[in-house]
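hey all, quick one before standup. I had two proteins in the batch that finished overnight and I want to keep them in one place so we stop losing track of which output belongs to which input. First protein below, input sequence then C-alpha cells straight from the run.
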Amino acid sequence: MYKDLYSKASGMADLIQEKIAKPSTATTQAFVERSTTGLKRRARADQEQIVQDMEQSLPDMITGYISNIRRTTPDEIVLASVEEEPAPARGSGTWDYNQIGSFADRLIQSESGGRSGVQIQTQSGGRRQNMTGLFQFSDARLEDYMNDTGASFSAEDFRQDPDLQKDVFAWHIADIDRVIRDNELLSRGYSMDGLRAVAHLGGINGMLRYARTGGTYNPADEFGTSLNDYYNRFSGQE
C-alpha cells in the first residue's frame, strides 16, 4: 500500500512541477488546486485505513501474546534483578527524625534555643556564610544535602520551613552515623551522640581527626566552643 501511494504521489508531484514551470494560467492554477486537494484526501483515507487495520489486528496480537506466556514455563522466564538505590525521600525510614529526636532536642537548645527562624553570619572555611535554623546549618552543608538528594531551595526557603530543617537534620545525622560505623569509632570507646555533636560543630572530617588523635585535635569556633566541649556536653561527660 505504501509503495503504491508513494508511486502515485511521486507521479502527481512531477506533473504539478511541470505545470507550474509553464506560464501561469487559470487552467494550471485550477489543476494544482484539484491535485493538492486530491492528495490530501488520499492521505487522510490511507491514515484512516492504517488505524482500522491496527484496531482489527490488536486483539489478535494480545491473544497471541497471552498464548505465548501460558506456554512458557517458569524455568524459561528470566527476570532481570536491578538493585535500585534511589535517594531516600524526605522523611523516609533511613532518615527518620523521630529516631534521633532526643539528641535533636538537646542540640536545638544548644544551637538556636528552639528558634527555627534564626539566621546569623559566621566565618567558616575561609568565607562568610549563613548559619540558619534550629540546628544552625551552614550554606555549605545545605549544598551537600541538595547535591546528594537533588532538592533545591534557598537559605531563606530553609529558614522559613521548620519541617525541612528537621528533614535535613535527619539526613545529616544519617551521613555522620555512616562514617562513624565505617571507621569503627565506637569500638574505641567513643559515645555516638558525642561524635555526632563533634561532627555537627566541626564537620565530618574534623570529627574523624578528633577521634583519631584522641581529642588532641580540638579547634574552637568563633564563639569559643571547642570540639571537646561539644563531645563532653553530648556524651554525658559534662
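OK second protein, same deal, sequence then C-alpha cells:
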Amino acid sequence: MRDVARRLRPALWVAVAAGMVASLVSAPLLGQEHGGRLAAGTVHQARPAAAGEGLGRVKATGSAAAGISLAGQRQLASGSLPVASLDSFAATPVVAPLRHLLQADLLVVAPATLPRAVAAKVRRLPGVVSAELVDAGTIRVGGSNAAMLGVDPSAFRAFAAAPTARATTLWQSVADGGVAVSYTMGQQDKLPLGGLVQVTGRQSQRLRVGGFGTVGIAGVDAVVSDAVARSLGIPAANALVISAPRAQLVTLMRQVKALLPATAAIAPLVAQAAPGAVASAGIASAGLAAAAGAAGGDGISAADGPGMTPAEIRAFLTAALSRVGKPYVWGAAGPDAFDCSGLVQWSMRQAGLVMPRVAADQAQTGPLIPLSDLRPGDLLFYHTDPTAPTSISHVAIYLGNGLMEQAPEPGMDVQVVPADFGAEFAGAVEVYPRVAAAAAGSIAG
C-alpha cells in the first residue's frame, strides 16, 4: 500500500501496476497521490538534514494516534516507527511468520477471475520464484477512492515492502477482518487507527482500521483478507503478483502475456531494461520503476532524448505558475485542484506533453542529473513516506533561482517555496518527452 495510491473512480477495478491503471471498465480514472509534503520555507541546501528536519514527518495526533501505545506515539512523532499498527491486535497467532521477502516484479490484473491453470503455468516459467493470486478492485474507504487487494495475509505479506512485511500485527489485523491502508491515505484522510471506517465496493461494511503501512505496489491503497474482499464484491482471484528477480522481465512479460486472457493487463513493478530496448519489444517500458526508489530512469541515455525545447519549458512553467493558490486535493489533476503529480501532469499537458500520472513513474521519464546541472523545468523528487523510505512519494517543479513549485498537502495550496535538497531528496530529473510519452502510453493500457 503506498503513498502513490488512490487513483481509480469507485467501480470494480481494471488493471493496476507500477502506479499504472489500464481501464477495463467504463469508469474514468482519478489521479493518485503521495505521501508527505515539503514544508514552506525549507532552506535551499545541499547538506544532510539535521535530526528532526526533513519532509513529511510523521505526526501521531488526533484519531490517527488512537490505540497506539505512548512509546509508539513517541516513535511516530520522531519519524522512527516505520509501520503504525495497533498494540492490542492479534492475540491469536493466525498469520504465519514471515520467512523471507519476495520482490514483486510483475502485476497482472483482469476484470474477472483468472483461471488457476494460468497461475500454475506462470509459476513454471523460467525465472519465476513465486506467483500469488489476489483479488483486485476499486472501493471507497471512508468516502475516498482506493485501490484494494484481497489477499491471504500469510502468503502475501512476503511481497510487501520490508517494514510492512515484518509487521505481523498489521497482517493479523487483516486476517481478523480489518483493513490496512497506506500510510499516506491513513494520515491525509485522518482515518481512525483502531477505529471503524465505512468500506464500500458493490457491498458496504464497517471495517476496523488495523494498520498503516506501505505494500510497495504502486496504486494500492488498501489490503483486506480475500474473504472480506469477496464480501465487498471485489472479483475473486483476478490479479496475479509475480516474483522473478533474476528473470529478464521483457522476455518474461511476453511469456506471461501469451498465457493470459485477452482482457488481462500486465506491467512491471521494477526497473530493469533501458526504455529503448523495452519499446522495441512492444511492451510497457521497464523504465517505470516503482520499486527502484531512485529518481532517473534506469538505462536512459542521451540517445533517448532530447529534453524539452525552450518553448515547451516556457509553456510548462507558465501553466504551472498559473495554478499557484489552487487547493491541494489528493487524487486531483486539475484544472482547479491538484495533488503533487497531478500538477506536473496537467502543466505538461498545457505544453503539449504527455506525462504518467504518478510521481514514482514521473521520476523515470528522464535521466538523473547533478544539482550543478539543474535547469528550470526539471523535476525534483522526494522520499516522504516513513513506511516506504526508499519509495518516490513527492514531486516538485524546479523554477530556477533556488525556487520550486509544489502541491504540498491537504489544507494547503499550490505554492512556490525555496527548493529543498535535504535528507529526503531523491534526485532531480530532466524530462525526455519521448520517454515520458512512452511511459504514459504503456500505463494507459
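Flagging for whoever picks this up: The chain is about 25% helix and 20% strand. Residues 1-82, 85-92, 271-292 have pLDDT under 50 and may be disordered.
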